[in-house]
Amino acid sequence: MDALRVILQVLLVLSSFFLIMSILLHKGKGGGLSDMFGGGISSSAGSSGVAERNLNRITVAVALTWALTIVGLGLITRFS
């Protein structure tokens, strides 16, 4: 059980990092913090719709992995 807990903890750290990075890569929708970090400049350059859809899919997959890892760690903690 300890090996599974360590694997889930490592997976949680990695998925947290990739979730933060994938969210920060999204194009800003105007206003807010995205403009502070140069979001307004990138909107004039334009981006591919396919790239944005793929980034959305990657973000959702990483978020699901993150959530399932937290549930798994919670179950291990509860029943051990």
Protein traits:
80 residues; mainly alpha; 4 helices; 0% strand; cell membrane; transport; translocation; protein transport; Protein-export membrane protein SecG
Give an account of the 3D structure.
With 80 residues, this protein is an all-alpha fold. It has one domain (2-79). The protein contains 4 helices and no strands.
Task: List strands and helices in order, with pairings.
Elements: H1 2-25, H2 33-36, H3 39-45, H4 49-79
Helix pairs in contact: 1-4
Brief overview:
With 80 residues, this protein is mainly α. The chain has four helices and no strands. Helix 1 (2-25) packs antiparallel against helix 4 (49-79).
Portion in strands? under 5%
Q: Structural class of the secondary elements? A: mainly alpha
Helix content: over 70%
What's the end-to-end separation, in Å? Answer: 8 Å
What coarse outline follows from CA principal-axis ratios?
elongated
- What does the main sheet amount to? none
Number of spatially distinct domains? 1
Uncertain regions spanning at least 5 consecutive residues: none
Give me the number of helical elements.
4
SSE topology string: HHHH
Task: State the total count of DSSP E strands.
Answer: 0
